[in-house]
Amino acid sequence: MQKQRIILLVAGVVLGLAAIVMLNAYVNQEKQAVAIKAKKAIEQIKANQTAVLVAKKDIPKGSAVTADMLDTQIVPSQYKQPQAVTSLDRIDGMVTVASIAKGEQLTLGKLAYSRRSGGLAEMTPMGKRAITISVDNIASVGGMVKPGDYVDVIAMLPVPIVTAEGKQAAQAAVLPLFQNVLILAVGSDTGAPVAQDSGRYKKAPAKEAAASTVTLALTPQEASLIAFVQEQGKLRLVLRSPADSKIETIQPARWETLFQYISQYMVPAEAPKTEVRKTQEEPEEYIEVYRGLKKDKMSFSK
Fold first, then answer.
1. How many CB atoms lie within 10 A of CB 143?
2. What's the rounded Cα separation, in Å, for the pair 285 and 300?
3. How many Å apart are CA 47 and CA 94, to the nearest integer?
4. Which residue segments constitute the domains of the chain, with CATH numbers given?
5. pLDDT tens digit string along 240-291?
6. What is the tens place of the pLDDT at every residue in 200-226?
7. Using CA of residue 74, residue 78, residue 79, residue 80, what is the dihedral sign?
8. Residue pLDDT, tens place only, 108-145
9. Other CB atoms within 10 Å distance of the CB of residue 56
């Protein structure tokens, strides 16, 4: 009897310890779940917010922008202005081409580089290279692109392919090269204000004739690629909205992709209606039956 009590006591202690261990594991698991959930919530909040530069005070037109004029403010992403500036390095050496009110977000549309800052070299963003390409009126969006615009660059090239017979041939294709590329200059116009005698700046007069060259800001690798492509085919610029900086996946355009795109909007032709000819009814077979003086017909099937 004493032995049974001891066994029951030991079993109770073991079960109690097991329950404690399981409870601790459950509590730790819940803590981890709460921590992960909180981390995801913080990441989501950060993803929906962005830091922008705002004016500490009213900044008059023609003023050189300096760090003491600006402050950093966290705003929801939906309230971020198009072309809002997020880094002070991005606007180093720029001047205002329009007045900026206190508390207003700093945008690239109200800024331009000063010719006093040294020219095209200072206008080129860090990590990029300024490269000039030849364009015609069509390639430069009717000659309406201007310095400070962002464009996509596409190339029209003869792409080498191998035919079914094993021979090499060239197939025309349009390839998306780069997206969201900054235009630094159109011809010799950089869009920078021209210094006046008073020390203020005024915008350079627009060129009447469309320029035959456009200078882009590209990475060293991109600059090499666009130089190679220009020797092999033609380039064309696609103008972007100032509020759109999204990079999208685009398929190269060939005859196959063209027909594939068009076919999804084509209405299939209706099948010709076939007339169902009515078959001539077979003559009914019968026998004549006389009942007294009355004659009847009795039909029968084969």
1. 18
2. 6
3. 29
4. 49-113 (3.90.1210.10), 121-266 (no CATH)
5. 887 677 788 888 888 888 888 888 777 666 656 655 555 555 555 666 666 6
6. 555 554 444 456 889 998 999 999 999
7. positive
8. 878 876 654 457 777 777 778 899 988 876 766 777 88
9. 13
80 CB neighbour count, 10 Å cutoff: 17
Centre a 10 Å sphere on the Cβ of residue 152 and count the other Cβ atoms it contains.
Answer: 18
Handedness of CA 70, 218, 178, 114 (dihedral sign): positive
- Confidence (pLDDT) at 1: 63
The reply to whether the predicted model has a pTM over 0.70 is no
